[in-house]
Specification:
This protein has eight helices and two strands; from the N terminus they run αβαααααβαα. The chain is mainly alpha-helical and about 110 residues long. The protein has one domain: Orthogonal Bundle (434 Repressor (Amino-terminal Domain)). It has a two-stranded antiparallel sheet. The protein starts with a helix and ends in a 6-residue tail after the last helix.
């Protein structure tokens, strides 16, 4: 992460902490993808989402991870909203940072091996 990006992240972390608690943005890509698959009656791979949105599979995978910090831009948010036919409020949610670990796969399945 370059210095300007780090300063931006530090600024927003400070702003969020001043509000009261440490909040983080979580993308609801998996939930939206499941809903789209159900409505279209077919399986949709992240690779297809990547091809249709112009966002790399690696970035999409990172956005799907509740514990992976990702710096993104409004073009990605707009592209995902167009793909899922939703608003940014449908795509993202603010959650308490302490609750994020509970969502992580490793926390849900401690015996799982990689």
């Amino acid at each position: 992460m370059d210095k300007a990006t780090q300063e931006n992240v530090t600024y927003w972390e400070t702003v969020v902490q001043l509000v009261g608690s440490t909040l983080v943005i979580r993308f609801k890509i998996r939930e939206l993808l499941m809903a789209k698959e159900h409505s279209e009656g077919r399986r949709i791979a992240l690779r297809e989402v990547a091809e249709r949105t112009g966002i790399s599979p690696q970035v999409l995978s990172s956005l799907c991870s509740p514990t992976h910090a990702v710096v993104t831009n409004t073009a990605f948010v707009e592209s995902l909203c167009r793909f899922f036919d939703c608003t940014p409020n449908d795509l993202m949610v603010m959650v308490d940072a302490d609750d994020v670990a509970i969502c992580h796969v490793d926390a849900l399945y401690p015996d799982r091996r990689r």
